[in-house]
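Run log // design_07
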């Protein structure tokens, strides 16, 4: 007996195989790329996801005999992406991804429509799905006219796996077409976005069966034709399942392409004015809130690219002893920003550069800028009455001890590094597959991981970093005014 969790990420796919009792057996990763044809654009060809999944499944079958006893699959995917299909189920154009900001005017139009925030529970951000479709309508009318279904990336893999159009609540909550409190498509929200309910996939909870694996795929992968495909989840909801963030007060920090602070909630408590996201969890009758910054490890990866270094080389050169705030300040708005600014047009900048500025100074500034961006999200949680004192740290950036020490100090919270923390979303997806197959209660499966290290704030540096954070906050409106002069 085994279960397969798929983490469909922005830069690659991870397939994680777990045993019948939830123990990790092994994983396979495959990478792909995004296209950025214009500033603020980000697209992917969905065929790359399918190819990566097929290669990963075949490699798992080759490496692990337990794969032949596969019982269920679940997909966690990067949210908000618009995959447009015609009446025959063929992809019309490349998927417009979550970090694509071209639809900022359409997002503003929707966000100003009476009732939209109240029904969706969220600000309509440019990266959400609904404004993307309005952009397609306004700029590619021939493609818009052909749209028979709109699928999020995870739902597209569900379609590939089952042949059915089906999505889960947690992923669909980020479209601006779902009533987050009612956990169903909203006719009013769809009408506001010039869409119809027949263009939406069928909805299930993330831990419920969505269908069964197609017979041809089952034969190709060497498994039975009774493999269940669970509803799945948006990537952050799946990560919450992977680290056991299910109940009020549970939360995590994710240092991936984007940066996320997430807190599980026992009820639906929208706070759109704060730019916090309020979404359905991947299990029934649970929700979560999160603050999102668009460029977390993306900022470090950008610096690595322009310096012809790897991210690990840049952070490794700093050592593990946390240094006081540097003179150079970095605003991490390479692709705009969500929480708390909801600003698709803002772009990043360095200030405080001098002739003596070295590569390590730039690295420190980038790491500090990301930490300050996460502090922005923490401030919005505090303003909405949610107190966060401890977070589990996951994502690729959590491998840097220096960065975690920095973030713990800037946020003044304890950060816990879990065992196998790199498997957050994939493990969460595998757990959802297990629940869908066994019918076990989520609290029996979505357990917290073993913690291998707790990183506490360095009290002597909390004050200096707080002072620098105030400078960081004051810099945003100044840079915004420079980049967007009056009358533009």
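design_07 sequence
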């Amino acid at each position: 007996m085994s279960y397969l969790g798929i983490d469909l990420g922005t830069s690659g796919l991870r397939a994680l195989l777990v045993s019948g009792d939830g123990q990790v057996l092994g994983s396979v990763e495959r990478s792909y790329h995004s296209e950025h044809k214009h500033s603020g654009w980000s697209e992917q060809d969905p065929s790359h996801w399918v190819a990566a999944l097929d290669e990963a499944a075949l490699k798992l079958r080759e490496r692990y005999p337990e794969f032949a006893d596969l019982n269920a699959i679940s997909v966690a995917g990067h949210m908000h992406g618009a995959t447009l299909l015609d009446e025959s189920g063929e992809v019309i154009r490349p998927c417009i991804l979550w970090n694509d900001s071209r639809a900022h005017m359409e997002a503003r139009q929707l966000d100003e429509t009476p009732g939209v925030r109240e029904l969706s529970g969220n600000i309509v951000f440019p990266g959400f799905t609904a404004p993307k479709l309005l952009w397609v309508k306004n700029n590619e009318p021939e493609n818009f006219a052909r749209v028979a279904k709109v699928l999020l990336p995870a739902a597209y893999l569900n379609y590939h796996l089952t042949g059915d159009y089906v999505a889960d609540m947690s992923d669909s909550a980020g479209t601006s077409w779902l009533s987050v409190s009612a956990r169903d498509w909203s006719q009013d929200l769809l009408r506001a976005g010039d869409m119809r309910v027949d263009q939406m996939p069928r909805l299930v909870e993330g831990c419920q069966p969505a269908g069964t694996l197609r017979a041809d795929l089952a034969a190709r992968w060497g498994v039975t034709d009774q493999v269940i495909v669970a509803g799945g989840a948006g990537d952050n909801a799946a990560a919450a399942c992977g680290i056991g963030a299910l109940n009020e007060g549970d939360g995590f920090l994710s240092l991936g392409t984007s940066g996320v602070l997430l807190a599980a909630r026992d009820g639906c408590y929208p706070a759109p004015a704060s730019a916090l996201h309020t979404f359905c969890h991947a299990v029934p009758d649970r929700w979560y809130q999160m603050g999102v910054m668009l460029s977390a490890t993306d900022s470090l990866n950008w610096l690595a690219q322009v310096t012809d270094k790897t991210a690990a080389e840049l952070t490794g050169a700093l050592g593990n002893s946390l240094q006081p705030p540097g003179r150079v300040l970095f605003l991490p708005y390479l692709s705009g920003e969500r929480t708390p600014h909801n600003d698709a047009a803002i772009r990043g900048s360095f200030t405080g550069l001098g002739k003596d500025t070295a590569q390590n100074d730039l690295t420190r500034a980038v790491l500090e800028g990301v930490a300050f961006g996460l502090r922005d999200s923490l401030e919005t949680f505090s303003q909405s009455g949610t107190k966060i004192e401890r977070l589990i740290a996951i994502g690729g950036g959590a491998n840097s001890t220096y960065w975690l020490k920095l973030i713990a100090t800037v946020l003044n919270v304890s950060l816990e590094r879990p065992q196998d923390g790199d498997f957050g979303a994939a493990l969460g997806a595998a757990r959802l597959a297990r629940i869908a197959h066994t019918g076990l209660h989520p609290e029996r499966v979505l357990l917290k991981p073993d913690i291998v290290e707790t990183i506490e704030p360095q009290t002597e540096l909390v004050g200096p970093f707080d002072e620098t954070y105030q400078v960081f906050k004051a810099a945003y409106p100044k840079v915004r005014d420079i980049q967007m002069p009056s009358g533009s």
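The two ends are 61 Å apart (CA to CA).
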